[in-house]
From TrEMBL:
Pfam families: LRR_8 (PF13855), LRRNT (PF01462). The keyword Iron does not apply. Residues 1-18 form the signal peptide. It comes from the Eukaryota. It is found in: Secreted, Extracellular space, Extracellular matrix. This is Keratocan. InterPro entries: Leu-rich_rpt, Leu-rich_rpt_typical-subtyp, LRR_dom_sf, LRRNT, SLRP. GO terms for cellular component: extracellular space. Keywords: Disulfide bond, Extracellular matrix, Glycoprotein, Leucine-rich repeat, Repeat, Secreted, Signal. It comes from Synaphobranchus kaupii (Kaup's arrowtooth eel). Transmembrane segments: none annotated. Its main location: secreted. The keyword Signal applies.
């Protein structure tokens, strides 16, 4: 029986062409495949243990790079089960029952090459710690996270994406202290939390900031001063009125996409030439004056539509109190406009 297994494995090994994995590793990997999981011979670095109703993590074979454990009943992130998986790059634990206490000391730290960690839809109330410094993406949506312990991200300068949407973070939770160390952060998602003010302490590298569905009423005048790369800003479903927006608050050199749908704006805020997408639907805007919102004096625009003029391509204004027709100067100013929803 055992001999047969070895022979059949050897035969299959020859069909493994794409992976530069030594035969003995492929063999070791397939032989150590837990019975609860599936280890495809064609991609020996991948181990699928998802959707199995598992309560615990089985012992994972040593040459695993991608490990799928989502949609189970796992409540403990076991140090022992992951002890040999030092090459792990990608770990998906979405939709399980892991609590703070369930994250065993050192279970994550040992995964010193981990790049993606997904623990969405679990029962965490804080950021699991200590995290491997190699992480580039951390997805913790829809837990019950209400605090970010100071220093938890210290040394994590590879982390580019931090997704914390659908948690219970209040204003006191997101501070310079709590985010310290994230010197390479590009995208941060804090949508669907309990923020009443704009989060502080975001690193200067932040390019995408998602804050939809919070209770934010205003943006402080100097808020974007230390965020020069801001390009995608989403504040849909908040409580912003024009009183809460300083006059040139969105005059950001890199801004491309600004979403302010479902707020309480009564006027179109000013925005710079660079902006390509503007979502202002479902506010209380009564009229749009193209001359006033044009980022350059409208008289200075010539016939040619080019990239050095206003770059707005898409504008949503539906769900406001605007009556047609669209003001003609809007079309004159925004020559590149392809769609306007009203
Ligand atoms: C880890 O590898 C060692 C040596 O190959 C082996 O004895 C042990 O059972 C493995 N542990 C787990 C949890 O798989
Ligand atoms: C738009 O604003 C300009 C400049 O403030 C003003 O001269 C013009 O009358 C306004 N247009 C409309 C239709 O209100
Ligand atoms: C582009 O448009 C701007 C504003 O209309 C104009 O000043 C500039 O000369 C144009 N540049 C080119 C290369 O056509």
């Amino acid at each position: 029986m055992e001999l047969f297994l070895v022979i059949s494995t050897l035969l299959l090994v020859s069909s493994v062409s794409s992976q530069d994995m030594p035969y003995e590793h492929v063999l070791a990997q397939l032989q150590a495949c837990p019975k609860e999981c599936r280890c495809p011979r064609s991609s020996p670095h991948v181990v699928y243990c998802d959707n199995r109703n598992l309560k615990t993590i089985p012992n994972i074979p040593p040459h695993t790079w991608y490990l799928y454990l989502q949609n189970n009943q796992i409540d403990v992130l076991s140090e022992k089960a992951l002890r040999n998986t030092t090459q792990l790059r990608w770990l998906n634990l979405n939709h399980n029952k892991i609590t703070d206490q369930g994250v065993e000391e050192g279970a994550l730290k040992a995964l010193s090459g981990l790049i993606h960690l997904q623990m969405e839809d679990n029962l965490l109330t804080t950021i699991p710690t200590p995290l491997p410094a190699s992480l580039e993406q951390l997805r913790l949506s829809r837990n019950k996270i209400s605090k970010i312990p100071p220093g938890v991200f210290s040394g994590m300068d590879h982390l580019a994406l931090l997704d914390l949407q659908g948690n219970k973070l209040g204003d006191e939770a997101v501070t310079e202290q709590s985010l310290k160390g994230l010197s390479g952060l590009v995208q941060v998602n804090l949508a669907k939390n309990n923020l009443k003010i704009m989060p502080s302490g975001l690193p200067a590298t932040t390019t995408q900031l998602y804050l939809d569905s919070n209770d934010i009423e205003k943006i402080p005048p100097e808020y974007f001063k230390d965020l020069p790369k801001m390009a995608f800003l989403r504040l849909n479903f908040n409580k912003l009125g024009n009183g809460g927006l300083p006059k040139n608050i969105f005059d950001l050199p890199s801004i491309l996409d600004l979403q302010l749908s479902h707020n309480q704006l009564t006027e179109v805020p000013l925005f710079p030439l660079s902006l390509e997408h503007l979502h202002l639907d479902h506010n209380k805007i009564k009229s749009v004056n193209g001359t006033e919102i044009c980022p350059v004096p409208i008289g200075t625009l010539d016939e040619s539509a080019n990239e050095s003029g206003p770059r707005l391509r898409y504008l949503r204004l539906d769900g406001n109190e605007i009556k047609p027709p669209i003001s003609w100067d809007l079309i004159i100013c925004f020559r590149l406009l392809r769609a306007i929803v009203i």
